[in-house]
Predict the 3D structure of the following.
Amino acid sequence: MPTLSQFLFGAVLFGALVAVLGIALAPAWQAWRRRTLARQPFPAAWRRVLARHVPQVRRLPVDLQLQLKQHMQVFIAEKPFIGCNGLVVTEAMRVVVAAQACLLLLGRPGGHFGNLRQVLLYPGAFLVDRVRTEAGGVLRDERQVLSGESWSQGQVVLSWDDVLAGAADPADGRNVVVHEFAHQLDQADGQSNGAPPLPRGMSAARWTRVLQAEFSALQRQLAAGEPNLLGDYAATNPAEFFAVASEVFFEQGPQLAAERPALYAELQAFYGVDPTAW
């Protein structure tokens, strides 16, 4: 008969083996669950929400529409939504956010915003208090009014008013959901620097060279007062350049390809889709 110490040792060993087995099987179980979710019939109520609020979906080729809906089903099942400032999050709100966020996943096999833990929705623009370091190391409190924000800890914060406005016009190059979820992709390695982890086969050296050159070219254009497609905010830093360029890529693909072909080519390789064909 085993002693108490032997029994406890055996119990601990068994628990450790179960834990290790669970960790080993978790990816396979998650992949199975996602395939099951993607195969479910797309709810008719969600179709009506898309038809009313997200006209971008109608622009997509039929095969990409199907992929988008499959990604949405997984996204809505996996990502919690939290209402802020009294906002009650509805199913329609989840659908509108998910449809725009999942555009970024269409050409990225296996991508599901793995670091994203929560989506926080405010009724409208929200206030954020920040401390800014000025010249000489002087710290100054600053209050900002924002329509969206992405945190490397796994949260995306959005203004519902701006989510709706961004979805309403799929060709104006401005979409807060695409912008903030581009930041999530950028932050997948813990940094927000305009250099997201690249798909296999892409050259990191070429990505860095092209985006740095395009960022510098934009700054020169703005300094000279020349018109451009990306706008002032894209020149803030490389992270914002990537996020703004992603908005324009998905909403004004043909114009971006004509004005900045090298940048368009890198974004096309990164996202795995070609909006010039939509």
About this structure: Residues 30-180 form a domain with the Cyclin A; domain 1 fold (CATH 1.10.472.150). Residues 16-22 have pLDDT under 50 and may be disordered.
